[in-house]
Amino acid sequence: MKPDDFRHQGLRRKLVDDLRAKGIADGRVLAAIGKVPRHQFIDDTAFERFAYVDQAFPIGCGQTISQPYTVAVQSELLQVKPGEKVLEIGTGCGYQTAVLCELGAKVHSIERHKPLYLSTKARLAAMGYRAYLQHGDGYKGMPLHAPFDKIIVTCGAPEVPQALVEQLRMGGILVIPVGGEGGQAMLSVVREAGGARSTRHGNFSFVPMVENKSNG
Ligand code: SAH
Asked: How many domains does the chain have?
């Protein structure tokens, strides 16, 4: 694994300052982002110098590592408390997974691309992050491990999948970007006795959530 030296740590502090300037106020989220060595999630050395710039990058399989600002906004909306059980849909390279681990969550994460699932499983273990990873279709959630305190979707969904709402505990929160290829609205959905209540939190651009095509 690439070392995490003083230069990386300095760049990371600068990234945290940038995120604070962009309106991220949750100190726990900023501290978590300040701890995760993002350069260790970027295999392509051509992109490594951008690791602490607030941008998204290609990570193989036609997928991307989310922009730090997006990770920060979603993590803030999720209001994770230590010990909470969190389900992530779209593990990708595992950066958001690591941030959730730093927030003290017990993370379950699902990824449809098998090569990504396998490489991320090895990477997170090597970095010392403990998360339960699964290869499969996140549209269906992870019914065997439900209910979850929180669910985060890191790909653009055409609508809110009912299965995910049903796998939240009462009062649990689902953070999900909803919309088409042109962009998505970030929704925070709270499960309540009579159904679900959702609020909007700005517009984002995610790779699409693809249903029922988990490839081997
Ligand atoms: N959480 C990542 C973001 C990865 S991009 C990060 O921190 O950078 C979104 C990921 O969602 C991609 O890896 C894509 O393969 C995955 N994805 C898309 N549709 C999915 C589905 N139905 N089930 C599981 N994963 C899915």
From this structure: 1
Q: Concatenate the DSSP letters of all residues of 12-58 into one string.
A: HHHHHHHHHHTT---HHHHHHHHHS-GGGG---HHHHTTTTSS--EE
Residue whose Cα lies nearest atom 16 of ligand 1: it is: 90
CATH number at residue 168: 3.40.50.150
User: What is the distance in A from the centroid of ligand 1 to the CA of 207?
Assistant: 8
Q: Is residue 173 assigned to a domain?
A: yes
Answer for the pair 73, 22: CB distance below 8 angstroms, yes or no: no
Predicted pLDDT of residue 57: 84
pLDDT at 10 over 80: yes
Give residue 45 CA to ligand 1 midpoint distance, Å.
22
Give domain status of residue 15, yes or no: no
Average pLDDT, the chain: 94
Distance 164 CA to ligand 1 centre (A): 15
**Residue 63 and residue 208 in contact, taking contact as beta carbons nearer than 8 Å:** no
Asked if residue 152 is part of any domain, the answer here is yes
Q: Going by CA atoms, what residue is nearest to atom 17 of ligand 1?
A: 90
* Prediction pTM value: 0.96
Is pLDDT at 48 greater than 90 in this prediction? no
Parent domain of 175: 61-204
Q: Would residue 11 count as lying in a domain?
A: no
Cβ < 6 A, ligand 1 pocket? 63-66, 89-90, 92-93, 95-96, 110-113, 116, 137-139, 154-155, 207, 209-211
